[in-house]
């Protein structure tokens, strides 16, 4: 039986997601391509690797064995590349980093900039994901580092504090809600809403609304927090964004920012890794930098 690294990464993604659809998306493949590749793996070994049902998939005993060896192989390859990179002059390295919306837009730019300037040979493959997916991907070895919130179970991942992210509602000045000191998210469901065009934060808000039996009355979706604030300031509706973004946007848009009182709306963000000895030298350096308090530089 002959499996390549792409086969192993796909198989682990499917096993960790419990779904061929989600696993295919994580591996960057279409569902038909992923399904065909998994069937070819089973045919090559003449063995059933996955039990398929309406609820998803789970590995068979043979699949569990393959998953164990696949994790070991991928971890060793990452270590090999890191060690060889230390000897190769001019060789570029890439660190895979997953983060949620707030981390990417509000915190990472100022934290990544100094480190990347000091390490011109290292590129960052940065992807936006929800915190639950980040925990799964880092655990499975699909990313060296993640930035996630304390709202999810990080399992055995090693965590270091990164930032505190507080969500606020932004409403036009003079709006009936503007005089309140705090708001429950449920109070927003009856209001015309301005959302994000895409991203983990908007997915989270949609899921929170569904959890309490409602849905957001979406009027329009904007690509940036600045766009949401500009629309809210003009009276087109209300939105939910990080407090740091609201403070920045108040300088140019006539909005009022009201903290959300829901517990999930104040999130402690952490940088996470699976196991520090497994990290490449570049990933270890970046993780140590991100684990430093904001304002302190590490080279």
UniProtKB/TrEMBL annotation:
This protein's superkingdom?
Answer: Bacteria
Q: What keywords is this UniProt entry annotated with?
A: DNA-binding, Transcription, Transcription regulation
Residue span, HTH lysR-type domain: 3-60
| Pfam families, alphabetized | HTH_1, LysR_substrate
Tagged with keyword NAD: no
In the UniProt record, does the keyword Transcription occur?
yes
Annotated protein name in UniProt: LysR family transcriptional regulator
Q: Which family does it belong to?
A: Belongs to the LysR transcriptional regulatory family.
Q: Residue span of the signal peptide, if any?
A: none
């Amino acid at each position: 039986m002959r499996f390549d690294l792409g086969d192993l990464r796909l198989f682990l993604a499917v096993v960790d997601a419990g779904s061929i659809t989600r696993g295919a998306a994580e591996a960057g493949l279409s569902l038909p391509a992923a399904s065909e590749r998994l069937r070819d793996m089973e045919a090559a070994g003449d063995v059933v690797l996955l039990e398929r049902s309406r609820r998803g998939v789970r590995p068979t005993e043979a699949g569990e064995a393959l998953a164990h060896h696949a994790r070991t192989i991928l971890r060793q390859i990452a270590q090999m590349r890191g060690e060889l990179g230390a000897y190769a002059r001019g060789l570029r390295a890439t660190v895979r980093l997953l983060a949620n919306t707030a981390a990417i837009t509000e915190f990472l730019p100022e934290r990544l900039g100094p480190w990347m300037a000091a390490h011109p040979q290292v590129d960052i493959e940065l992807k936006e994901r929800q915190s639950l997916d980040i925990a799964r991907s880092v655990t499975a070895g699909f990313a060296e580092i993640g930035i996630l919130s304390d709202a999810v179970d990080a399992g055995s991942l090693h965590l270091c504090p990164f930032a505190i992210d507080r969500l606020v509602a932004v409403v036009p000045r003079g709006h009936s809600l503007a005089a309140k000191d705090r708001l429950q998210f449920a109070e927003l469901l009856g209001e015309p809403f301005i959302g994000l065009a895409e991203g983990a934060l908007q997915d989270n808000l949609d899921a929170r609304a569904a959890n309490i039996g409602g849905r957001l009355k979406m009027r329009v979706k904007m690509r940036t927090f600045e766009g949401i604030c500009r629309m809210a300031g003009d009276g087109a509706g209300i939105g939910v964004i990080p407090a740091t973004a609201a403070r920045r946007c108040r300088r140019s848009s006539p909005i009022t920012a009201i903290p959300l009182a829901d517990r999930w709306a104040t999130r402690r963000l952490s940088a996470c890794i699976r196991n520090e000895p497994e990290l490449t030298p570049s990933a270890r350096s970046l993780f140590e930098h991100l684990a430093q308090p904001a304002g302190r530089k590490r080279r």
